[in-house]
Amino acid sequence: xxGSSWTATVDEAKVREGSPVAVYPxxxxxLLVRLDGEIHAIRNKCAHMACPLEGGSLEGSILTCPxxxxxxxxxSGEFLDAPELRIPVYATRVEDGKVLVDxxxx
Length: 106
Ligand code: FES
Known about the structure:
The protein is an all-beta fold. It has one domain: Rieske Iron-sulfur Protein (3-layer Sandwich). The chain is built from no helices and 9 strands. The strands form 2 sheets. The protein has a 6-stranded antiparallel sheet, with no helix packed on it. It has a 3-stranded antiparallel sheet with strand order 5-6-7, with no helix packed on it. A hairpin with a 2-residue loop joins strand 3 and strand 4. The radius of gyration is 13 Å and the shape is globular. The two termini are about 15 Å apart. Bound molecules: FE2/S2 (inorganic) cluster. FE2/S2 (inorganic) cluster (FES) binds near residues 48, 49, 51, 65 and 68. FE2/S2 (inorganic) cluster (FES) binds near residues 46, 48, 51, 65 and 68.
């Protein structure tokens, strides 16, 4: 697909419901989150002061940054208190048991 940058990451089976997994396709920090069976990918870097989000807590689709509790929706990357602030999210797909991430930002 023109303009896309699909990159393989981990085995699909490693991404379990409610347990975000940090991956580094092409050196980019990305967090994979499975919600209702679907895998979402969000940049693993907070929009506030760039803390990694992987140590944050997840409730449904809401991920809370471990540093200062900013909350983001992992489906859209939106900061809940000001949706105009967003973290990049990426398209995902599964191929041959691996999770692929399209590093072209959505
Ligand atoms: S760095 Fe995430 S809330 Fe401050």
